[in-house]
Amino acid sequence: MEKLIHLTLRVWRQSGPDRPGRFHDYQSGPVATSLSLLELLDLVNERLTLNGEEPIAFDHDCREGTCGACGAMVDGLAHGPKAETTLCQLHLRDLADGGLVVIEPFRAWAFPLIKDLVVDRSALDRIMAAGGYVSVDTGGAPEANVIPIPQPDADQALAAASCIGCGACVASCPHASAMLFVGGKVSQLACLPQGQPERARRVLAMVAAADREGFGACGNHRECEAACPKRLSLRHLARMNREYLSAR
Amino acid sequence: MTTMPNAGLPNAPLPEIWARFQETSPLLSPANRAKRTILVVGTGLAGSSAAATLAEQGYRVKVFCLQDSPRRAHSVAAQGGINAAKNYKNDGDSVFRLFHDTIKGGDFRAREANVYRLAQLSNAIIDHCVAQGIPFTREYGGYLANRSFGGAQVSRTFYTKGQTGQQLLLGSYGALLRQTAGGRLSLHPRTEMLDLVVVDNRVRGIVVRHLLSGQVEAHAGDAVVLATGGYANLYCLSTNARSGNVTALWRAYRRGAWFANPCFVQIHPTCLPAQGSQQSKLTLMSESLRNDGRVWVPKAAGDRRRAPDIPEDARDYFLEARYPAFGNLVPRDVASRQIKEQCDLGLGIDGGRTVYLDLEDAIRAQGLTAIRRKYGNLLDMYQRLTGDDPANEPMRIYPAAHYSMGGLWVDYSLMSNLSGLFVLGEANFSDHGANRLGASALMQGLADGYFILPNTLGPYLAQAGPNPIDARHDSFRSSQEEVNAQLGRLLRIRGSRTAADLHRELGLMLWDHCGIVRSEAGLRAALAKLPRLREEFWGNLMVPGVGVDLNQALELAGRVADFLECGELVVQDALHRRESCGCHLREESRTEDHEPRRRDEGYAYVAAWEYRGQGQAPGLHREPLAFTLVTPGQRSYR
């Protein structure tokens, strides 16, 4: 039989960027522990809708931990208490029966609030636009196996590339630093021969873009690594620092 | 009307058609490209690769997506890999063989020339993606690794562990962002296309709603590219992302674009089963698990023992029993159908709609370490989602709607019957026939975006000339008025049911009547229910809030309104196709041993439907399918 629990959701409600916000409590009623927390929010939203009230706005899409659209602070932790788990994969069985669950938006200077739990993370796109790619036009690529890449390098690059761009690293950092995010892309391309020609330019441009967007500097708190749903290693951030120093 | 759709194929032997097309098409000069504006809707693999490449070529490009970032598009979730005919494994692969497997996998309902071109371009995709720095999995020697996938007899699938879609998308997303710096490409995230503007049979632009402000805006262009993905969310619960919808395609259909083979929707056998009414998503478990997993149900209905307590002789390994040659590796449609039949007979686990996928024997034979090395991330994902450890008890799976092979009709240049409307990736119908092979979706999206459209758009524009109608034209204003009127109507009903609730009802009904197995009676029942459900929607919907704000309930309501109409076309298409084909079994079309029977004598064509107005039956155009390099045969897996 399905196990049922009861939760009180304390959710940050704010109708717009310039409007005052406040917490609002919602009772879950008896709900199956097999639900995800976002499915519980769906349920609360359907009840609110039928009462003619505005549902809680939140970003979400793939619901399988890959797209990076969802994200909120749950009891003070980005994506909630379970390690290596995006918000959409946090299930009620991971929470204590009868408990209070506090849900607030990611808060950072560079992530302005839009509505309720929805924040603007377009700054991450602008960092990527500064250099998070190899400048190769379609059409001129050499045969794929011309350049062998040692397997450990390819594995390192893939580990660095597993970032889903959710912003949990920023939200969990006391300095709202985006350095783990930047480090992932810089590290990926620094590990690969294809990334070499633009190696120095890339790291300088991406770090400058992060500064410009108002993200803080890394203070070695390592909260980002703990919060990252893909467990991006701090090693990539360290590699980015080396890249940055040698590029200057 | 019986206009014969014209695919616009150059007259040449199949392997030379694409080269002939490129050599004989007019070109558009770089100076003229800079004067043309292309509107690209959707930023999955097809949309982002097309937008990036067109901007590289010098076009002005505007890119629209409804997510907050182009990187969120659902291509990101593809796990398995991408096919290419490199023959790195020296196992007999070739362009011809990839073409042959794809056309056969599609059960001979795809256009031969398009599929041949897809196979020809497959290798260039891998070259380009490697040059972009996509970290494909490699062998010890540093060369690219390949695996066999989806029952293919050759190893032609390239992959980046279980995140191939994500890595390929990050590559095309990077290419897209690189073009924003040059100023030729502008990004419009959190923007949803709500209408297509057509004047004199030529597409002039689109009308969009900005999802944060709610403002309805017009954008004019010389061509419009729809790369908006598939419509498997028609069934409400599917493996697709929650925002997946048919709205862009449907609004284009209502403006005259033909919708081809809408009933071809793939049902994937190995997904997590639905639990309760609040479930939002049926997560796909990679079918690679069937390489080592055994599918079974208890032999006796009502056997409620826990799986480990059910002895071997009380288990029915029904795929192995029925298909000894292929066993658990039968194609997706066969597995889905058999699983459904077992559950319909009341043999599902606990009498419900779910069966076991069991790794127990593989773990015993190979050891848990070896199994974890192969499937570790999948086993972790299962445990995260269900709370159960597949090493201790078998996984529970059930089929779910996964991918739509149908889509807007396109000719060889990927242009719809409306001049200037191009349709790429899952949104078009062209390459997968009645069933898609594993690891072919990523290949098609990138072939369309990186290589095909950039070579077919110029020739079209060179002939068609610039679009003189700008966004101040009356046609844009009246379209904006219609869009605003519909949004207002949705907000004013103030009834007592949510769009999510009505979507669930639609999905369950279609799943029952127009899912894996279809029958004349069931389809007719669906046709009778759909108008009543639409009436309920427009009479009893509740959408809170206002239009000029971020209003996610309003967004969903608009999408469900279109699903309610599209569902009817899907059922009509399924009803008219009285054959078993690809991923669908038609009850009335079986062989003596109850296997599906395809009917080439009556149905070897693409069914392209034309909108004829509200309440009118749609018109049917048939594009006959001729095969010159392959001979259609009945699939048999016995």
In short:
The complex is a heterodimer of chains A (248) and B (638). Chain A has 248 residues and is an alpha+beta fold.
Give an account of the 3D structure.
The complex is a heterodimer of chains A (248) and B (638). By secondary structure, chain A is an alpha+beta fold. In chain A, 33% of the residues lie in helices and 13% in strands. Chain A is built from 8 helices and 9 strands. In chain A, helix 5 (179-190) runs antiparallel to helix 6. The model of chain A has no long low-confidence stretch (mean pLDDT 97). With 638 residues, chain B is of the alpha/beta class. Among the domains of chain B are: 14-264 and 405-464, FAD/NAD(P)-binding domain, CATH 3.50.50.60; 268-402, Succinate dehydrogenase/fumarate reductase flavoprotein, catalytic domain (Flavocytochrome C3, Chain A, domain 1), CATH 3.90.700.10. Chain B contains 17 helices and 21 strands. In chain B, strand 6 and strand 7 (202-210) form a beta hairpin. In chain B, helix 3 (45-56) runs parallel beside helix 6 (164-181), helix 3 crosses helix 12 (441-464) and helix 10 (360-366) runs antiparallel to helix 11. The interface between A and B is large, with 83 and 86 residues.
What is the topological layout?
The complex is a heterodimer of chains A (248) and B (638).
Chain A: E1 4-5, E2 8-14, E3 21-27, E4 31-32, H1 37-50, E5 73-74, E6 77-78, E7 100-104, E8 113-115, E9 118-119, H2 122-129, H3 151-161, H4 168-172, H5 179-190, H6 199-212, H7 223-227, H8 234-247
Parallel strand pairs in A: 2-7
Antiparallel strand pairs in A: 1-4, 2-3, 5-6, 5-7, 8-9
Chain B: H1 17-24, H2 30-33, E1 37-41, H3 45-56, E2 60-64, E3 82-83, H4 95-105, H5 112-131, E4 157-158, H6 164-181, E5 185-188, E6 191-199, E7 202-210, E8 216-220, E9 223-226, H7 247-254, E10 259-260, E11 265-271, E12 294-298, E13 315-316, H8 318-322, H9 332-344, E14 355-358, H10 360-366, H11 368-386, E15 395-404, E16 407-408, E17 421-423, H12 441-464, H13 474-492, H14 499-513, E18 517-518, H15 520-540, H16 552-576, E19 585-586, H17 600-603, E20 605-610, E21 619-624
Parallel strand pairs in B: 1-2, 1-9, 2-5, 9-17, 18-19
Antiparallel strand pairs in B: 3-4, 6-7, 7-8, 10-16, 10-20, 11-15, 12-13, 12-14, 14-15, 20-21
